[in-house]
## 1
Amino acid sequence: MPAPIRLRELIRTIRTARTQAEEREMIQKECAAIRSSFREEDNTYRCRNVAKLLYMHMLGYPAHFGQLECLKLIASQKFTDKRIGYLGAMLLLDERQDVHLLMTNCIKNDLNHSTQYVQGLALCTLGCMGSSEMCRDLAGEVEKLLKTSNSYLRKKAALCAVHVIRKVPELMEMFLPATKNLLSEKNHGVLHTSVVLLTEMCERSPDMLSHFRKLVPQLVRILKNLIMSGYSPEHDVSGISDPFLQVRILRLLRILGKGDDDSSEAMNDILAQVATNTETSKNVGNAILYETVLTIMDIKSESGLRVLAINILGRFLLNNDKNIRYVALTSLLKTVQTDHNAVQRHRSTIVDCLKDLDVSIKRRAMELSFALVNGNNIRGMMKELLYFLDSCDPDFKADCASGIFLAAEKYAPSKRWHIDTIMRVLTTAGSYVRDDSVPNLIQLITNSVEMHAYTVQRLYKALLDDISQQPLVQVASWCIGEYGDLLVSGQCEEEEPIQVSEDEVLDVLEGLLVSNLSTPVTRGYSLTAIMKLSTRFSSLNRIKKVVSIYGSSIDVELQQRAVEYNALFKKYDHMRPALLERMPIMEKTIFSGDGIFTVCLWSVFPVLQANDLLDLLGGNDVVPIIQTTVPTKPASAGGELLDLLGDLSLTVIPPMTAYNKNGLIIEFTFERSNPNPNIAVITIHATNSTEADMTEFVFQAAVPKVCSFPSCILINLLFMSWCIGT
Amino acid sequence: MIKAILIFNNHGKPRLSKFYEHYTEDTEQQIIRETFHLVSKRDENVCNFLEGGLLIGGSENKLIYRHYATLYFVFCVDSSESELGILDLIQVFVETLDKCFENVCELDLIFHMDKVHNILAEMVMGGMVLETNMSEIITQAEAHNKMEKSEAGIAGAPARAVSAVKNMNLPEMPKNINIGDISIKVPNLPSFK
């Protein structure tokens, strides 16, 4: 059998392939040759074959049949073989294959080899892919090597120890004695890896952390030497002496000084020195400064130092280098919670970053801007943010819109400003707002009673321009349905009232129903709006016509609504005004017993189906909606509710506990009303069994739509019985 | 911790891939492709930091990359590493390769993939930075190579001959020989390499 080709030849051949198929063919041929060579147990060329296999693995072709061969190479005596063998093991093997355990013995022998390079190879492989079993077996060897005086091996042993600790945290104590004099090494490589080992140990165990606190003076001394020492060619990177080691030490100091006064005290001087003396013209200097700033912010430093740190970050923001700006924005984001005022000073620079071309910087600047918004700067910030919303990429729009809504809700200076802002968001980024913003907005509009006319006018004008953005259309049609009378009567105080006739309004709403741009939900909204206008407008015939047309619509939801509204016109006309009255003010509350649960908003239409009622009363964790169910007189059709309640005759329904959690108990009791046996009365008892007061308890009622004959639901809110008796 | 080190060219062909966390072979190739897509879209004058792709850990991990001529050097790290520090590390890595290969270019990486792995193993071990001193790394790598060569036997003879000639100190050919006031110009002979 001719000698297998060299790796170089193989690479040359593969590069001549012009298509993927050709390449695959060549590789398959070579794989077959390699496989037969492996079968022949050829020792001389095994190394070459495995090297070729690794190349093919990198290109993405399967190479698992070489795993055992790697093990054979590791066991060989030649350095060349061992090298490729260990490389193959690192690339092809991992702890999920059982084969890797066979390596343990080889590694053990090699850890005690006479040549330091072989020992180094073994440490490297163990540190890269050692499994927990292997680590447990070989931890003793690693610990021995950690104490050796050979710096080449010592640094590798330190990192290997880190890997062992990560895999088997219980072995951490074993390495403790070896760390005693790690920091007195002169060799920077060993120092560097020792600091990594100490960092890992401190991060994992608070006991170790307190043990190593006594090393702070030593670390400070090392850092001082690094800064003060003159130029040393071997560790110099762009004029600074071993910046990697400086950064590592700063990070370890951060961990050691966090929450501890004495250590922070010891570090103050050196941190101030590093912060002021480091040259910032190159990236290295900035890397060290960045690490210093993070350390200053984390430990208990004195206020002068903190101000210095934030100023450094401010300087970073003005730097031309994008990387520096990115890094500055990231760290400002971390510190804005604790040092809010200091960061405010740089607000204008941050807002300028919104206009940067770089996507990563824009995202960071946006998050930071939202964190900086407060009652004083809301107007200015909002202007910038709205401008940003107009011009940003679609990926940002959803987050930006939600952020604007939240900020506006918290800090709105006036109701009119709030509504204007929301309108602006809806018109510019309307299709990107989240689904739950529609009910939130509706609630907001309902609550600002004096702005109803203004709101509905603006929404109407927006609708005339553009009906493609669904959230905007939904809110607008809801408002027109509610306040259409204000619109037509031209009562607006805030701005110039427009002249709109009833027919025009109905034109617009009908346009929504037929447009292809409207989703089914939007159509539902507009049909309901038209229906509500029947009590507010005088042109009943037109409305009746529209409603009856949709009684035969293909969309089941629309059809059901239309049929029910039709029934309202025909048989239950006397109930219509009461049913379609203006919505009362809805409150959104958050109250906490032991936990926090929010009482959700709802809109009358659409509303939950009957099955959902049961789910809610079944008692999962968030069960806020308290509903009244009305058992009407038994009839043949539409008896779903009755099925739920079981008994058709409705003589006695036992009281049920609807909700019992966190000290709040809610019970329903059912009884027939005496004068009119067709009416059932449901009483809700809510009791607070905790010692604390429960405030802002709000009652909301939702009308189930499921009943096909609308029943009159009169809700008498007897607040009296609630206030007493906590 | 460094999760992965990838080197690929402007067309997405991998030149080196080292993962410090375990993924299956398919996932590794997908990660390489995904990273290439993310990195190649970037403009020249934007910052060198990116959020990691979905396959490699999403927004907890960052991709720190540098573009040199035809190659992208990408380090995927988690939040415990300093971003600016990793940028410097990439620079040190490339300079080391430059010293080891003498004006390194993509072809060197292609044909000497194992050597590049060895150099990388001297710098980063188990996802952590081992050594950052360039001369130290080069010394170790040279020592390894010497050990290999000493074992190579007959097959290594040409390589040994080449390195022997390189190490030979050939005297410089003087351009002008000046003996008193007679100056004889030496003809320009082609240099021996």
## 2
Amino acid sequence: YRPHGLRQSFTYRPHGLRQSFTYRPHGLRQSFTYRPHGLRQIQTKSKKTLAKPGVKNIVLVEGVRTPFLLSGTTYADLMPHDLARAALQGLLHKTSLPKDAVDYIIYGTVIQEVKTSNVAREASLGAGFSDKIPSHTVTMACISSNVAMTTGVGLITAGQCDTIVAGGVEFMSDVPIRHSRKMRKTMLALNRAKTLGQRLSLIGSIRMAHLTPELPAVAEFSTAETMGHSADRLAAAFGVTRLEQDEFALRSHTLAKQAQDAGLLSDVISFKVPGRDTVAKDNGIRPSSMEQLAKLKPAFIKPHGTVTAANSSFLTDGASAVLIMSEEKALAMGYKPKAYLRDFVFVSQDPKDQLLLGPAYGTPKVLARAGLTMDDIDVFEFHEAFAGQIMANLKALDSDWFAQTYMGRKVKVGAPAMEKFNLWGGSLSLGHPFGATGCRLVTTVAHRLLKEGGQYGLVAACAAGGQGHAMVIEAYPQ
Amino acid sequence: MFSYISCRTFSVAPAMSARTHVNYEVKEDVAVIRMNDPTSKVNTLSVQMQNEMIEVFNEVLANDAVQSAVLISSKPGCFIAGADINMIQACNTSEEVTKLSQEGQKMFARIENSPKPIVAAINGPCLGGGLEFAIACQYRVATKSKKTVLGTPEVMLGLLPGAGGTQRLPKMVGIPGAFDMMLTGRNIRADKAKKMGLVHQLVDPLGPGLKSPEERTIEYLEEVAIQCAKGIVNKKISLTKEKGMMQKVQDYVMGIEFVRQQIYKTVTAKVMKMSKGLYPAPLKIIESVKAGLEQGPDSGYLAEAQNFGKLAMTSESNALIGLYHGQVACKKNRFGVPERPVKNLAILGAGLMGAGIAQVTVDKGIHTVLKDTTVEGLSRGQQQVYKGLNDKTKKKTITSFERDFTLASLTGQLDYSGFEKADMVIEAVFEDLNIKHRVIKEVEAVIPPHCIFATNTSALPIKDIAAASIRPEKVIGMHYFSPVDKMQLLEIITTDKTSKDTTASAVAVGLKQGKVIIVVGDGPGFYTTRCLAPMLAEAVRLLQEGVDPKKLDALTTGFGFPVGAATLADEVGIDVAAHVAEDLGKAFGSRFGGGNVEVLKTMVEKGFKGRKSGKGCYVYTPGLKSKDVNPDIEDVLGKYKLTPNPLVSSDSDVQYRLVSRFVNEAVMCLQEGILNGPVEGDIGAVFGLGFPPCLGGPFRFVDTFGANKLVEKMKRYEEVYGNHFTPCQLLLDHAKDSSKRFHK
């Protein structure tokens, strides 16, 4: 299983590279005056609400996340379930939810710590939830926590549950590094060996080469291509230039910084890390300058590639959690829901040449399902795996030829308006803990709808394996 | 590679005429030169192409706004596939060909010395003259597409790279690498080419974007090449590569004359061992390389041009070029497009043959069912298919995922379930008419009406097998050769009743499987087995006459057969050989006599069935490459001992006794209409039976050797052995009239 971002782990150090950028928090603002407020023009929605008769309304009550930190920083000595615990406790704290009021807990994760393979269970027990609440872990690359949430939606719709906690966690500061297959085979045989002679002969069969460790694969299993390499090819296929990518990366960092400074990232909880300080902020946001970004060499396709460390998302530790309920239950318990979770789709395509086009395929599909148009959407939150990947998806959405040739559509749906798009930063700047990003996207849409006064929001994300996800979120009437 | 000066057929076009093959546009200060032969699927260095190229090159040099150039093909799948062979064939003397070569050398020397750097942007095949063109450029960028291959296949046409290739390659990839490329003629993939230093930079093929992947990939290649061209001009890219430690050591070693002499010696010895001295081209390649390295470029280029001229006039080159054309012809479906494409193929019998057929089918997008009667047989067959694919994975030609994905199209089963969806059934069960009849009846009960029934047999007449069919128009023979994944030939046999669409469909499947196909008429042994049988009968007689198997092998390989006659019998299987000899003996009577069939039968009784049983003419020890003569066959042969007649038992006579029977039978197949023409006859003999490629096949051999000379020899043998050596009428006709030739 090959999440993106892993490519960076063993080949080069994104953080190290970042440090060479001039960190200029002020000064760059003028060039990015995307004014989220005030721009909103009143438009006629094609639909007043997406509620359907006979279908339960499902609401997002609250969403939280730990600060997203560059891997190898303050969280370095934790374990994945510690991060998940922090998110769960944050959720409990924020919602004052009784610890036995939850029906089911679902977590998404990508790189599994083998000791806690059902990290949902270990985290919920450790977070003090009742041991009577069942929990399971799901995985679908970068959309793992989206799957956790939609699984919860399914359980509520099916009448199985009313209250679900979903979340995601990723811990890249420590990943399972294994002995080689040959070494493992010898060690397992050693377990079964009965006599000293058998043991000695097995030990004697060990060669130096067997001691080479096996790192988590840095490539897509089916194609053996790293994700950054695929992103670079994707950018080239859509004619995305290096300049466009650097501009988008800078935009992401600048907007994230603005949002952080303005206190908009209210889903972030502060977390007292055992043995370390309390962290309360994401630490990967570093607005730089175009000149600095231009200095970087391509990271994957050399020498003519366009994807660099700075216009890719970086390896991140972090966890997120959301409380999802049926509307009636939420109201009965006295909660004021933040948003409705509406239609969603999962899509998948060719893992070689269309690895990261999930949003391009998912967006038109989910809009059609909800009966909405691009114009109906007030808030877009797309997962930013790579600046080049985002630009490619935007170009694909804006191309009639692509829509006709690859999606079987008559016309394009169009690209999202940039003044509605990822206005509080994105995975490029906030960080991308694979399993946790989905909940961040959904919570951010809910918060932005509240803040900006919009009605519909759209989440879209790509994932390894050539898969993708999109979901429509409706503001809860205030 | 050549210019119009030497071409007699080309009338000089008016200077202002529009160019059709080569064009260029200037992007900023880079001239993008685009090649596209509108008359063909591939670009070749034809006269027209060269003339326009020279014109464009002159314009580019004269244009002050241009600092550098990019050379690229606008065809999505082809850079330059090579020089135009017809130009060489149009020449009558070696001097003319030498002249062609020198013109090419001159043009590429101009490219090499161009003051404005030229970047070759390669996507698709870059072969022969195309490669020589590319390596004359200052810089090469290639796509990593599977279609992109670089190579010098001239040796396979009995020629050498005659436009500077023998001189530039050793400098570029080192002496051993250059010899390897030029002597084997093999295709080199882009990533390997990069490692060897043949190309400087690689470009990944792109997937879907705002244009078709093919179109966008070429555009991207062009963009990268333009960047490189600019980079060279503004000195960001250095053309002198920093040499690694290994490279320095290698260069030092190659700088020692003694070492180089050793290399020439070793390579020559290897070539002699493999070619038995029957192929002049490899030796001339070594000679040309040596001349350049030891006596300087002037001697080198001269040697190359002169040797090129000499080679073009050899019968070997003529034969190999004939085979090349024949192969191209046999890769076409002369029966048209079948009404419905075969999407589901079922194979009966998971033996060596059945599994082999599955192996070459399953990765071509055809769903393949492999059916056997026992779990053991089926497992063995499935394992064979798996191993074939897994070996490709180990060689990294496919990924493990591609292997698994391909295997998902293979279904192994013991019953006839799903046969109602089959578009074609190929049976590869035991060679016994009764079994074949039973199978055909069973199958016809479960397959849909449009389904074709193909039978894989090496000797049983198809009409006899079809006798049990209720729909004989759908019955056809598909004779594969073992091992199926290695042998290129497929012999398709039609009966009077086989419909044209059935034939078209069988050919289409064969072509998909990557086969070279001959379509022949029905009859005992069809074409290939029928030619081989008398030769094997003669081989058995020679063994009876006391010729040692090793000697027999040496004489046959010495004549140019890739496998000796005794080894061939072991490979085919002594039991199969006995079976065929008996069947064909019955069908054709005493003419197919010679060796005593009892020899083979006795060997089978003793368990000497050939390689598969570990013993035949030789003893095969697993893991050992060398083999010894089976000591126990002495007894068998002793029992059937014949006294050789010294008049017809010289080494040369032994060779001609074997070959003449083969050739006579081939000619008789043409005479009887089994064969469609001499081209298919030559292709079938060379690709299916290993007839010496340097002779170009039995028909070209008759043309070259002279029918009269061959008939003369046969008459001499006829006096001793009777009708085994009676020349057929068509051969006699050719002997009488020397103007009659099989190949024009």
